[in-house]
Design goal:
- The protein is an alpha/beta fold.
- It folds into three domains: 4-141, Rossmann fold (3-Layer(aba) Sandwich); 147-281 and 303-343, no CATH class; 355-459, no CATH class.
- It has 17 helices and 13 strands.
- It has helices at residues 4-14, 31-39, 65-76, 97-108, 121-127, 147-153, 157-164, 175-191, 195-204, 207-228, 231-246, 254-257, 263-275, 308-314, 325-344, 392-401, 448-459, and strands spanning 21-24, 44-49, 85-90, 113-118, 138-141, 279-285, 296-305, 354-360, 365-374, 377-383, 406-411, 416-426, 429-441.
- The longest helix is centred in the middle third of the chain and has 22 residues, at 207-228.
């Protein structure tokens, strides 16, 4: 199963300016899988899994790098040779001293290839007593398989290539291709992007097996919470865990999670799960310009879960009976899918936050599901679970901000470009929202920034 991150790992291996690499991502998203695929191109591999080999922790008791390398060689019986040996240090949340030692690998043994990974690395990095060696390490970020990777895993690279090369100005999508891609999108909603589940479906197409695997993965994530946190915090973490899975896209109010618990306690639980990469926070931004983080109001946020398949499993949906999940949770599924795709659409070396826009007033509220930047402009993105739906909030945003001439709606409809021209009333004043509306099917959301830039380049809209 080839992942997008594999290309970055291969480039990292041959790059002369290479630094020790830290791979960050939730449990079971495929970090070890991809590193093991890379390891096949090395003559020697020293792999330490700190969860299975607790005795190895003592090797990193100080920063004398030549002693560390010598003990790694003695511990594993594998030589450490510059250019020929990969040192893979896995489950490093159990030995955060590894992260501190990486700078010394870079400074004193730059010829060795060194990768550190773990399911709770962000928490370990946050809690380190020593500063992170900025400039002496590099990061890659990993997520569940996105929809395009899912297509490749099922042997449908031709459809993936169609999506990744699609130009809305030049190509019409035939109903036959469109419907096939929608069917596969619904399948992705069932299976999700966790590698073990996708790989099992590619081999057997047995939904009962997928359901068992998803249940085991959910239990594994919950066990991590029990294993690595204090008992007094576990109930609150599990409550937030379940709440986000069942309420993707809804603004988080701590009182809705548990009205009997202080908001500061639940806020800490949310932050922990975000650092563990089990949930994605989607923060409110005013959207007046870039960077969107400069316009952020972090106290107003929504959240999405790690994976749509696991989210459905937590909600108790039975894959064997193949319910019409689009009818049961259609809005949440569409927004959960969109959040996953947008998070994974960045370069693997970038960890960008997700944003949305909300306007609250006495007479009416408005919300745009996502904001992203393209060039120097802010682009609003609305998610619709069907083929139709009103765009009042999108019109309002475009009338108020006037920061771009392009807006995007993702739905189950075919791609199109239309000129929107709507009169709206803002605080009793009539104004016109005039802009180009890009309609994209949900299965193309990973390409939204590229397609917007192509349109803008032709029309001078950005």
């Amino acid at each position: 199963m080839r992942r997008n991150i594999d290309y970055y790992l291969e480039e990292w291996k041959i790059r002369s300016s290479r630094k020790p690499l830290i791979i960050r991502g939730a449990r079971q998203v495929g970090k070890t899988w991809s590193v093991e695929a890379l390891s096949k191109s090395f003559a020697h591999v020293i792999r330490i899994d700190f969860e299975a080999e607790r005795d190895a922790v003592v090797i990193f008791r100080d920063n004398r790098i030549e002693r560390i390398i010598q003990e790694l060689t003695l511990f594993t019986g594998i030589p450490a040779i510059d250019g020929l040996t990969l040192i893979f240090l896995d489950e490093c949340q159990l030995c955060p001293e590894v992260l501190r030692s990486l700078r010394y690998f870079y400074e004193k043994r730059p010829g060795l290839h060194v990768i550190a990974a773990g399911s709770l690395l962000d928490i370990a990095l946050n809690e380190m007593r020593y500063p992170m060696p900025v400039g002496r390490v590099e990061f890659l970020y990993m997520y569940p398989l996105n929809y395009n990777e899912f297509l490749s895993a099922l042997g449908k690279d031709h459809l993936r290539q169609f999506i990744e090369n699609y130009r809305v100005q030049d190509v019409e999508v035939s109903p036959a291709i469109h419907n096939q891609l929608l069917d596969l999108l619904r399948l992705y909603y069932f299976i999700g992007g966790m590698p073990e589940a996708v790989n099992a479906y590619a081999r057997s197409e047995d939904l009962l097996t997928i359901q068992r695997i998803q249940t085991e993965l959910v239990t594994s994530l919950q066990n991590d919470i029990a294993k690595y946190t204090e008992k007094k915090d576990q109930l609150h973490l599990l409550n937030v865990f379940s709440y986000v899975a069942q309420n993707t896209g809804r603004k988080i109010k701590y009182s809705n999670i548990d009205g009997h618990v202080r908001s500061s306690v639940l806020k800490s639980a949310v932050n922990y799960l975000e650092q563990a990469r089990i949930i994605h926070k989607i923060s409110h931004s005013h959207g007046d310009g870039i960077p969107l983080s400069a316009q952020e109001k972090p106290e107003h946020f929504k959240a999405a879960f790690l994976d749509v398949g696991l989210s459905n499993r937590i909600c108790g949906l039975d894959l064997v009976q193949t319910p019409d999940i689009l009818a049961i949770r259609e809005g949440m599924l569409a927004e959960q899918f969109a959040a996953q795709e947008l998070a994974a659409a960045n370069w693997s070396f970038e960890d960008r936050k997700l944003y949305y826009w909300i306007r609250q007033s006495k007479n009416s509220n408005a919300e745009v599901d996502f904001l992203f930047s393209a060039g120097n402009n802010v682009i609003p993105l609305e998610i619709k679970s069907g083929k139709v739906g009103t765009l009042k909030s999108l019109h309002l945003f475009m009338a108020l901000k006037k920061s771009s001439q392009i807006a995007v709606r993702c739905s189950l409809d075919i791609p199109s470009l239309v000129e929107a021209n709507h009169q709206i009333t803002i605080e009793k004043v009539k104004t016109i929202a005039k802009y180009t509306l890009l309609n994209l099917p949900l299965y193309m959301i990973s390409q939204v920034k590229r397609i917007v830039k192509e349109i803008a380049g032709q029309e001078g809209a950005l």
